[in-house]
Amino acid sequence: MAFKSLLTVLTNLEDADPVLRQIIALANAQDAHADALCLGVDRTQTGYYYAGATAMILQETLTRANAEGAEILAHASDVLGKSGIRWSADDGVAQLADLGRHVAHRARFSDLVVLPQPYGDSHGTEAEPIIEAAMFEGHAPVLVVPDQGEPVSAPRNILVAWNQSVEAMRAIRRALPFLRGAELVRIVVIDPPSHGPERSDPGGLLAQMLARHGVTCEIDVLSKTLNRVSDALNRHAVDTNADMVVMGAYGHSRFREAILGGATRNMLEQAKLPVFMAH
């Protein structure tokens, strides 16, 4: 199947343009419809107002969030309206603690959610929860777009991170429309286990499965010469001129990755090219 319903969630004007360019490129390539949900985020915690706070403070934060949502909507409508694709855009207001519910409801009816890189000086604290809500509550794959670089409409050289996990297989299956159209898919295995069902042929069964879908594959078995798996993946992506990475997300708990770090978090911090993820 192709990606016919694309969604992006915008909460910050500063990181909106790379995402809008990417969703327009995909909508053109996939003959898809692009939806933009433009949210003004009320970042206050109403349960922790100082003594003596009044309804005027609540109204002020709500008014500010409404204005931000309307500003983002105007910008998104202007960009999408000039693109020639089929599109729609809505605005709204959400409290930071309740953001996931709004995102998940829209993501559930989307084939792919296109979102900005969640870490960096210009990104708000809501960027990471939005990605998690789309994947965990909305059960949708997510394409994370870096701040720099050209949009990818039809990736030709795709790097697939394979560690035999359920999350990796889910991402690969959801990315099949991209994988089928690629000229080459590199299945990257880092430090394969010496004991296990794939010890004698790391990535072989996955390559066979993808070949039956008409995907041209190569298997790259790498040693973990760098401290983190994400470092090895990023370096190999650059060395092989990949234009997209496909990987499973949050193999450990989100809490553990938030505190200790993990391949997902590290990849999202460093990625210089679009990262397709699913959980």
Structural notes for this entry:
The protein has 279 residues and is α/β, with parallel strands linked by helices. It has helices at residues 16-30, 55-81, 99-107, 127-137, 166-174, 176-181, 204-211, 229-239, 254-260, 263-270; strands at 5-10, 33-42, 86-95, 112-116, 142-145, 157-161, 184-190, 217-222, 244-248, 275-278. The protein has a ten-stranded mixed β-sheet with strand order 3-2-1-4-5-10-9-6-7-8, with helices on both faces. Helix 2 (55-81) links the parallel strand 2 (33-42) and strand 3 (86-95). Helix 3 (99-107) packs across helix 4 and helix 8 crosses helix 10. The radius of gyration is 20 Å and the shape is globular. The two termini are 19 Å apart. The model is unreliable at 255-261 (pLDDT under 50).
Give a quick precis of the structure.
With 279 residues, this protein is α/β, with parallel strands linked by helices. Helices cover 40% and strands 22% of the residues.
Helix/sheet category: alpha/beta
Net shape: globular
Report strand order across the widest sheet.
3-2-1-4-5-10-9-6-7-8
The description of the largest β-sheet is:
10 strands, mixed
Counted beta strands: 10
Helices, by number, come to: 10
As a percent range, the share of strand residues is: 15-25%
Radius of gyration: 20 Å
Poorly predicted tracts of residues: 255-261
What is the distance, rounded to the nearest whole angstrom, between the alpha carbons of the first and last residues?
19 Å
Order of helices and strands: EHEHEHEHEEHHEHEHEHHE
Helicity range of the residues?
25-40%
Average pLDDT score: 89
